[in-house]
Amino acid sequence: MALEADRMQNLAITSEIFDREIRVVMEERRLSLEDKPEALLDEALRATAYNASPARWPVIGWQDDLQQMTWLDARGCQVERWFGAIPARPLPARKPQNEPLQRGLKRVTIKAPAEVPRVVLAFKVMPLEANSAAKQEAYALNVLAAVLDGYPNARLEKHLVREQRLADWVDASYSMVARGPQLFTLSAIPAQGRSLSELEAALRNELRRIAQNGVSAQELQRVKTQFRYDPPNRSGLAAMTAHMLSTGTRAAKGCLGLTEAQIEDRLAGIGGVIADTVDGDSAALRLRTLSAASKRDAALVVFAGILQRPALPEKKLAREKQRVITALNVSENQPQALAEKVFKAAVFGAHPYGASPDPKSIAALTQADLMSFYRAHYTAQQAVLSIVGDCDRPQAERIAEQLMRALPESVPGAVLPPVAPLSGSSEIKLLHSASQAHILIGAPAIARGDPDYFPAFIPAAQPGSFQINLQTRKDQASEALLVVFMGCRWII
């Protein structure tokens, strides 16, 4: 407390310190806003949509404001607003900053270096306010966003991405807990050969259908179930195989084959979520489900089918390849992604760790490639199974048997070649129109089998060696969850 009191009362804000820190803030703005077309679009959208609300101002500030700011401004703000010798008193009621009535359509177009265009529709709405007559409207808008894009195979994904092939990516967003007017947004990236005007019309049509016909009881129940868990975002060949596992299962003796939509429907109805992650050495499939026996068992049946009998349908593969290619094209305009790609190739050369997927390699993938990769790597001998949640040891053993018993037979594993040492230092410069530079420095380090591998992590955790951002997340219902982690290693 003494340290905090001293910091608050005697904080030294000097010109030298301020100049150093304001440069950091300006670089952060360049990194998070000015080098990202989608961020520039969002900034312009809010500045256009709002007239009076403070929501029209970027939190980090406009670049011109930052350039004009001095250390006296910072000290004056500290004294005047927070830590001056002001006696305690009740704060006056906050005056609302209401938006004037909008009398027509506002439209803004941002032109920036980008491989992929994007369209965003925004509607001014109110947030959740305790004493507001529109309180129920905020809940309804939150549900509406989920109906449109809150679970796999929701309306936007189903109609615009899968059925009509108008979009490669869609999103519906609404911030319910906030101060002042908010925006309900629909965003999308068009599929190859489709226009922004087509996509805008399709997004408006989805809203029109709900306005005219409402939502079904089944959709509403799915949303209520999905609100318990936010499904994480999903992420050539290894990643594509992992993601394609959940797009359908083959029929077998005593087991029905399921389509992608049927898998998603069954999981949505019981609060189940399946996700995949892939890195250079392994893949992981995760199942999260309520631990009630009926829901857990139903989810495990679906999960076992995905692991043991993936269909890997060609139509779904074509769709997923296009989505990955779109994402790769987007990354081609992101300086950090480009720098990391070139850096990895420079450090690891022809080693597998130096490879990065590109549109050509993704387009060449076939169903046979994926099935061959699955049979070679998704075996019980190469798997690590973790179970966390409300189940005892006998139940866990039954789950392990259920998931492992029908996996492919193991084949001799590939041997990871050693990483060749660098012959000398080198410097690579990439020309880019970005306003911020990205500098990467490194070399191959020790291998996983080295006895110093884990001790080497300790210095990075010591104060003063690196700045480490830590985020902890407490699961609000951990006692009511069953999490099954299935990891398959490429190299053994």
Describe the secondary structure blueprint for this structure.
Elements: H1 2-10, H2 15-34, H3 37-49, H4 63-68, H5 71-83, E1 119-125, H6 135-149, H7 155-163, E2 167-173, E3 182-190, H8 196-213, H9 217-226, H10 237-244, H11 260-269, E4 273-278, E5 282-290, H12 293-308, H13 314-331, H14 335-348, H15 359-363, H16 367-377, E6 383-389, H17 393-404, H18 457-460, E7 481-489
Antiparallel strand pairs: 1-3, 2-3, 4-5, 5-7, 6-7
Helix pairs in contact: 10-16, 12-17
**DSSP summary, beta strand count:** 7
Give the low-confidence spans: 228-235, 463-484
Name the structural class: alpha+beta
| Mean pLDDT value | 78
Number of helices in the DSSP assignment: 18
How does the major sheet shape up?
A: 4 strands, antiparallel
Order of helices and strands: HHHHHEHHEEHHHHEEHHHHHEHHE
The first-level CATH class of the largest domain is given as Alpha Beta
- CATH fold label of the largest domain: Cytochrome Bc1 Complex, Chain A, domain 1
Instruction: Say which CATH homologous superfamily of the largest domain is assigned.
Output: Metalloenzyme, LuxS/M16 peptidase-like
CA distance, first residue to last residue: 53 Å
Strand order of the largest sheet: 4-5-7-6
Give the overall form: globular
Rg of Cα set: 26 Å
Give the proportion of residues in helices: 40-55%
Beta-strand residue fraction: 5-15%
Total number of domains: 3
Pfam families: Peptidase_M16, Peptidase_M16_C
GO molecular function: metal ion binding
Domain Peptidase M16 C-terminal: 78-226, 365-456
Domain Peptidase M16 N-terminal: 228-354
